[in-house]
Write a structure and sequence with these properties.
Immunoglobulin-like
Amino acid sequence: MTTVRPVFSGTTKLVANLTRQDGRFLPGDVLEYTIAAQNNGNDTGNRVTVTDVLPANVTFVSGSINVLTGANMGAKTNQAGDDQGEYDAATRTVTVRLGTGANATTGGTLAMGASTSFRFQVTINSGATGTVSNQAVISALGETAGNQGSTTPVTWPTGNGQQPGQPTVITITTCANNSDCTAQAPFCDTTATPPQCICRNNADCPGTRLCNPLTMQCVECLPLVTTNCNPDTVGGGVSIANTSSRLCARSKR
């Protein structure tokens, strides 16, 4: 077995909520996943391909596949056979072929140190609860291994940006009772549709945290109310005086 090989173990998959930026994830919200890969090995990677089987509680957003960096940048269709990306509704699988020379059937080449990235979007399904756990797999065949007769690519799972090889997980902010909620929003408001985890007042929040009246989340600071606002605090960012969203750091300016 050759020790000369491409390595994609540092591939990351990050998620952003395009619908809201208050830390909540609700049914109907649009999530955008960005997958970034770099060949950190000592050999060229050929036939580089990412596959991502979507979990049952989300729906793929048609036309949302877009290669952001590297070869073949631009939007891709959902259909197979016409470009480097596609979505198979029957298997719920997003497939993107990456790298130089990638086409409608075969992944391309990523040299040592080369990188690429792409994104796609999903919508959280109506009635969805619990967590959304998603992880893609990137595969590549080393050039040296291919020259030695190997035809089987090596695979690596994506990481979540903090833990290599671990899935990207978000928690849908719906609940049946308080035990479904976290310390950041500890009360289950069953009068909302759908029921949501919130804080009602400062008494709901642990320690010295305050209840943000706009996001109804427990935060470290509130501009014009506390003096500890800085870029490292959790949450925060609401001016009680004018109810406009602001970053904690801005309250020091």
